[in-house]
Amino acid sequence: MTTDLPTSMQLPRPEPLLGTRGWAIFLAALIAVCAVAPALNLLVPEGSALHLSDYLVGLMGKFMCYAIVALAIDLIWGYTGILSLGHGLFFALGGYVMGMYLMREAAGPDALPAFMGFLDWKELPWHWALSGSFVATVLMVVLVPGVIGGVFGYFAFRSRIKGVYFSIITQALTYAAMLLFFRNETGFGGNNGFTGFKTLLGYSLNTQAMHVLLFALSGLALLGCILFSRWLIRSKYGRVLQAVRDAESRTMFCGYNPLPYKLSIWIISAMMCGLAGALYVPQVGIINPSEMSVGNSIEMAVWTAVGGRASLAGPIIGAFAVNGGKSWLTVAAPEYWLYVLGALFIVVTLLMPGGLIRLPAQIREWQDKRRALAQPSASQQGVQA
Amino acid sequence: MNILHKAMAAALGLLLSLSCHALTAEQTFAMAAAEDNDARAAAINAAVLEPDDGGRLAAYLQALADDAVRTAGGKVFVIQGERAIDPTTGAVTTPPADAEEIVNNNYLRGVIESAQAALALNSADVQARRAAAQKLAAEPDAARLPLIDKVLAGEQDAQVKAMLERAKAASLLGSEDSAERLQAVQQLAQIHTPETQLLLNQRLADESDPAVQKAIRSALSSIAESLAWGERLGAIFSGLSLGSVLLLAALGLAITYGLMGVINMAHGELIMIGAYATYLVQVLFQRWMPESAFGWYLVVAMPVSFIVAALVGAVLERGVIRFLYGRPLETLLATFGISLVLQQTVRSLFGAQNVGVENPAWMSGGVSLLPNLTLPFNRIAIILFAFAVLGAVAFMIARTRLGLFVRGVTQNRAMASCVGVNTARTDTYAFALGSGIAGLAGCALSQIGNVGPDLGQNYIVDSFLVVVLGGVGQLAGTVYAALGLGVLSKLLEGWAGAVLAKIAVLLFIVVFIQKRPQGIFALKGRSAEA
């Protein structure tokens, strides 16, 4: 008796994490983020055509944080089929945790953050206890969204809330959190949120070197998230997720319990969002409850949809494309931005369900279809919209 | 000595009787420009105690209130446009160029207003006397006690009398004599209004006599008890009112989402369109119709807002939504895009600011049931309107041909199509109906809230929660959910404040959906999973 499977039944060797081309692109991106862009910004003189302006460095740093969010939404929506309209909450939670640390540092070791002075508070509220330590802050940046997402997700998935119900409940959750954070007495700075940051680990936030460092950190985080996501979705775990997305009942009949799968990917996604928020806040210098507005979370889903769901590069392209368009248009013609964003929602859902990344393939299919129509005898390759 | 006294009394009496007949120059000067504000107030209060001769004092007080008084060299001038008159005689004079303008601070304005009210107590018109007595009761002042006593002796109207008794008691609360204070507290304890509660609370803070303190405490608790009823009823009424607003906002959604399965995130913007249509009708009435017809504008606005929103809805269904049936998440995103476009369109057309929508005259005011419970007419009208719309929708779904088709298409599209229902047209009609109801909601909401480009955003989350809580496809569930949520959040609001109540309600819904994922009325059978 042998435990070996007969040769005919042997499974194919799993494909590598990234192919040769994939690793080449990855390395190129790594070098661009960590060496080329910083060098172009810091070393190349300002007049030169190759100089990367501070504005662009800041913008790209922000976009890379957005790209992490889009990737996180892709994991839960594109690969697991659960549309969250509450990722703005997790993003903001990570941002608030980082903001608390920065506020403490700006206030000095023994003083209270300025807004508490206005409220005439004498001591820190309990939930600020860990905000003095950078190590704890880094941990809390992912743990807070993870735990809150986990508690919510456990109850939601356990009672098998899904589809649109789930989306609307996440929306309500974010809305409730926004109302809570708007209150002054909850200790999150109310309307104004946190601002007036000065230093990070003792180094000024307003130096060019710090901007470039945060930019590089965001880039590294994004690349790390891509690699991690790729590893996740290629694993057996990731395949179960996709099975849940495509046919949840059938997956259950095969003996899988979807709850731990859905819950864990939900928590991972929330944590990634928290990380993005934490990197975002020191770069823009402010965090306030409007990050949790209903529209904001939906816009995040649109980055993913525009780029292309169920692909790793898609959400990143989407985040850069939509936000690039927004940055340009809100300056060039502010009154048209909402028209464009609205049209984008409609056009993407109606005409390009695969997003930007599948647009070339879609165009090819259209052409094939037209050719097939022109020659009725040719192969009847149906195209599913 | 006795003789001397008598002589003095006689002289005083002569003086008084003289001053009875006319406002003297000294008096008018003291009222306008005595050494300090307290002295001016004293002069004003003293002047009111005497009978007004030919309305001179009333006119002079009005001039003081209007800042139309100037003084120069101990003389007073009332400025009337180009000319100036002497308040004591009414003769036209010319003030010197350096005449000083008299400025009143808020304290003096209060004194002048009370003095005017005190004067009005002598008015022949009962309504004016009632209003004056009410004003005096609201601003008690021990200095006016003699006047109140005098008027009370001659007053016939029971309401004015009661109000004056209250004013007297309120004024006595500040008395030096603790027995008088005790009596005043006992008298006030009979009057169960928020005003007396406030008065007694203020007194309690300064009270030193333990007996009076005890009396005030027991009076306060008896007042609080009877006020609590008004508050409870008020909370339930405002809950019903909020519930009917939610019902209106959610009814259209119950058709588009509940029956058709379309996640219409632009529903809030359809409500907004209804509100703006109402605004436009109002503007047209203001510009082209006689003023007497203004009260009717709402009657015209109702069908207009329905039709406009229904047309927009029909266009949306034909243009976008029909390509997305069966893909709810995509519909959600596409309609959110539509909502952004509609918002920006309204912003471009009407500006980012709120526009003003006025209540017609028959909608302002309210009916007062208890001292602290007044039901505003516009709220009552919205409750009635919501139920009228509900009745119309229920009739339409249950009894009409369109309703039959909608239900048929919802249950089994293929079969409905087979038996000859034009399903595509039915979809358009049903969606237009849902949108039109949103327009009606907007027309109603324009009467109680702000009308601006963000109007829809304020209602979209709530309306979805109502529909989800009520159970998809269930009109009755929508009604229970809307009214239940409205009453629940108003009751919580009284206890925890508006924002915390909202959060608590949202958490409640999240927990409730845990227990009953399909809402209050779950669909039974196989269709429940779909």
Would you kindly provide a written description of the structure presented here, covering whatever features stand out?
The complex is a heterodimer of chains A (385) and B (530). Chain A has 14 helices and four strands. Chain A has helices at residues 20-42, 54-78, 87-107, 114-118, 134-158, 163-182, 208-234, 236-246, 248-253, 258-284, 294-307, 313-332, 337-351, 359-374, and strands at 194-195, 199-200, 203-204, 286-287. Chain A has a two-stranded antiparallel ribbon. Chain A has a two-stranded antiparallel sheet with strand order 2-3. In chain A, α11 crosses α12. Chain B has 21 helices and seven strands. Chain B is elongated and about 100 Å long. In chain B, 41% of the residues are buried. The chains are: A mainly alpha (385), B mainly alpha (530). The interface between A and B is large, with 42 and 41 residues.
Topology readout:
The complex is a heterodimer of chains A (385) and B (530).
Chain A (H helix, E strand, L loop, with lengths): L19 H23 L11 H25 L8 H21 L6 H5 L15 H25 L4 H20 L11 E2 L3 E2 L2 E2 L3 H27 L1 H11 L1 H6 L4 H27 L1 E2 L6 H14 L5 H20 L4 H15 L7 H16 L11
Antiparallel strand pairs in A: 1-4, 2-3
Chain B lengths: L1 H20 L3 H9 L3 H13 L6 H10 L3 E4 L2 E6 L2 E3 L6 E2 L6 E2 L4 H15 L5 H13 L6 H10 L3 H15 L5 H11 L5 H13 L3 H50 L7 H22 L8 H23 L8 H23 L15 E5 L2 E4 H23 L1 H11 L1 H6 L4 H23 L9 H16 L4 H22 L1 H18 L15
Antiparallel strand pairs in B: 1-2, 1-5, 2-3, 3-4, 6-7
Helix pairs in contact in B: 2-3, 3-5, 4-5, 5-6, 6-8, 7-8, 8-9, 9-11, 10-11, 11-15, 11-18, 11-19, 11-20, 12-13, 12-14, 12-18, 12-19, 13-18, 15-16, 15-18, 16-18, 19-20, 20-21
